[in-house]
């Protein structure tokens, strides 16, 4: 699987530390069952500058499951890069089971403290998971079942304590990615082929919409470069996270801009890019050359831009707010009266106006469709 190969490759030379801020990190292994089933993580332990955002990089093969669990301190936004999964959860407010069959380019939002799980229904599954906390907490179902005394289940649900203890006895430790061994996986697929039914994405009446296909919301297109977005407009309950799905081709640039309401966490899926950030503390421009599986953090309000260094680049741009607010350089240049630049910086107003005449609207992805030069 190409995604797994690049995510597991270490590049020590890329681990840069800046005197002002550490904004770049590659990954740290959170859990590894085997080469095909592994989770990498970026939390505030690895990147101390993270604030209200963190990331898990999940890889699974068919038939495996990210065991049922919940996060006491974080909501979660899952983006499928490759493969197909079924994401299930229990709506604790309306008392509904929600299940979504998710394919590449689609997302599911999981509210804070909701019990949920992810089943791989194909091989080569790669899911990028982002959390609304820099250090998400996890309560795993395996620990709930093996640590809660069987008598509590008997008193609560009228089950037989001894039989229940026998049923959960195979759970010897925290599972994270199940089943616990290959024998159990073989038995499951051979004896119960119907155990993972085909899921039709349907939200029961009263439950919130938590699924979205990013191809339904194109924010900007410039030739073969695209930016798709999902925010609280598409998923109203998602007021703590949002996502830009950015495709850049050689010769284009995500123009200089900043975000007044949110930090940004960039994750590269394919290709290579350079993310440049102006540090307001030192006035140094920090250039981060990112390969697949690497991330960089851009604090709220910091000027930055992105340039691809391969023919095609695909990256995820996450924000720790439900809305994506951007102050674009193209708007700053074209909407600020030229005489303001002249009075502030002794720039010739007419020549400045003529120089930026190709900027006729908000760009986001440059250069303009018909560049002047």
Work out the number of β strands: 26
- What is the share of helical residues? 10-25%
Radius of gyration over C-alpha positions, nearest whole angstrom: 23 Å
Give, in spatial order, the strands making up the sheet with the most strands: 1-22-19-24-17-16-15
> Which structural class best describes the helix and strand composition?
alpha+beta
End-to-end Cα distance, whole Å, is 42 Å
Given the structure, what is the number of helices? 8
Question: Which term fits the overall shape?
Answer: elongated
- Average per-residue pLDDT, rounded, comes to 90
Core attributes:
single chain; 37% strand; alpha+beta; 373 residues; 8 helices; seven-stranded antiparallel beta sheet
Concise structural overview:
By secondary structure, the protein is α+β, with helices and mostly antiparallel strands.
Describe the structure.
Helix 3 crosses helix 4 (161-167) and helix 7 (338-345) crosses helix 8 (349-355). Strands 1-22-19-24-17-16-15 form a 7-stranded antiparallel beta sheet, with no helix packed on it. Strands 2-3-4-11-6-9-14 form a 7-stranded antiparallel beta sheet, with helices on one face. Strands 5, 7, 8, 10, 12 and 13 form a 6-stranded antiparallel beta sheet that branches. The protein is elongated, with a radius of gyration of 23 Å. The chain is α+β, with helices and mostly antiparallel strands and 373 residues long. Mean pLDDT is 90; it is low at 1-20 and 186-194. It contains 8 helices and 26 strands.
């Amino acid at each position: 699987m190409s995604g797994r190969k690049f995510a597991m490759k270490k590049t020590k030379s890329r681990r840069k530390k800046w005197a002002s801020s550490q904004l770049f990190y590659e990954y740290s292994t959170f859990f590894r069952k085997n080469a095909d089933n592994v989770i990498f993580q970026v939390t505030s332990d690895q990147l101390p500058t993270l604030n209200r955002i963190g990331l898990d990089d999940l890889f699974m093969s068919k038939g495996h499951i990210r065991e049922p669990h919940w996060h006491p301190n974080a909501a979660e936004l899952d983006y499928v890069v490759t493969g197909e999964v079924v994401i299930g959860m229990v709506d604790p407010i309306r008392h509904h089971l929600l299940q979504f069959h998710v394919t590449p380019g689609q997302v599911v939002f999981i509210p804070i403290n909701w019990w949920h799980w992810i089943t791989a229904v194909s091989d080569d599954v790669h899911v990028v998971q982002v959390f609304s906390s820099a250090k998400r907490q996890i309560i795993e179902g395996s620990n709930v079942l093996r640590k809660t005394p069987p008598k509590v289940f008997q008193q609560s649900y009228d089950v037989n304590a001894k039989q229940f203890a026998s049923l959960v006895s195979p759970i010897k430790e925290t599972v994270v990615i199940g089943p616990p061994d290959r024998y159990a996986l073989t038995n499951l697929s051979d004896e119960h082929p119907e155990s993972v039914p085909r899921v039709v994405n349907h939200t029961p009446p009263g439950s919130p919409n938590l699924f979205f296909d990013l191809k339904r919301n194109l924010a900007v297109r410039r030739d073969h470069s695209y930016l798709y977005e999902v925010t609280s407009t598409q998923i109203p309950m998602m007021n703590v996270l949002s996502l830009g799905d950015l495709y850049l081709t050689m010769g284009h640039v995500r123009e200089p801009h900043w975000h007044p309401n949110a930090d940004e966490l960039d994750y590269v899926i394919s290709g290579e890019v350079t993310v440049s950030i102006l540090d307001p503390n030192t006035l140094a421009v920090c250039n981060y050359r990112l390969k697949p599986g690497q991330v960089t953090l851009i604090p709220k309000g910091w000027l930055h831009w992105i340039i691809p260094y391969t023919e095609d680049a695909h990256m995820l741009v996450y924000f720790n707010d439900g809305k994506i607010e951007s102050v674009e350089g193209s708007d700053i240049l074209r909407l600020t009266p030229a005489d303001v630049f002249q009075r502030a910086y002794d720039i010739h107003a007419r020549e400045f106006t003529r120089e930026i005449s190709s900027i006729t609207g908000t760009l986001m992805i440059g250069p303009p469709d018909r560049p002047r030069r």
